[in-house]
Amino acid sequence: MTHKKFHLAQVNIARMLAPLDDPIMKDFVDQLAQVNALADESPGFVWRLADESGGAATDIRAFDDERILVNMSVWESIEALQEFSYRGHHAGVVRDRGKWFEPRSSRLALWWLAAGALPTVEDAKRKLDLLEANGPTPAAFTFKERFPPPGRGFAKV
Q: What's 6-134's CATH class?
């Protein structure tokens, strides 16, 4: 369901097994352009974190650890994000993440923001910290324990 006043922001981070130029990461790196193009063309897609050329955000380092990659995007609805994330080509990337990322290093946070607003990397870091400290709340949640946009009540969906 599309929410005209609010969009859904997501951040996910994970620690790579090796630097991006290592042969272990080749399959992952080779898929980035295709996955980003698919996201850009997906129904409900609004925005994604990108480098200055509009490419992958792999050069953006939000953490002191150089091997932590950050991915951030904004979607019209949680359903649109879920459809992109767990169906089609991207689902294979999610399934294969153990080839490129350390086990249990992935973290995800979802939150609602006013339509037209874009999150910053600092916003995303705060949302990850909130989720870790408090568990899922309307301020930061997960696919498993989600909350509706503001003004739609506080019951989990």
A: alpha beta
pLDDT, tens digit (0-9, with 9 covering 90-100), for 140-156 = 999 999 999 998 655 55
Burial 67-76 (b: 16+ CB within 10 A, else e): bbbbbbbbbb
Q: Could you give the angle at the alpha carbon of 48 between the alpha carbons of 126 and 25, nearest 5°? A: 90
How sure is the predictor about 12, in pLDDT bands with cuts at 50, 70 and 90? very high
Q: How many residues does the structure list for the chain? A: 157
Q: What confidence tens digit (pLDDT) does each residue in 44-101 have?
A: 999 999 887 777 888 888 899 999 999 999 999 999 999 998 887 777 788 889 999 9
pTM of the model: 0.89
Return the structure tokens found at 149: 């946009």
- Residue by residue, DSSP assigns the chain as ---SSEEEEEEEEEEBSS-TTSGGGHHHHHHHHHHHHHHHHSTTEEEE---TTSS-STT---SSSTTEEEEEEEES-HHHHHHHHHSHHHHHHHHTGGGTB-TT--EEEEEEEETT----HHHHHHHHHHHHHH-SBTTBB-SSS--PPTTS-S---
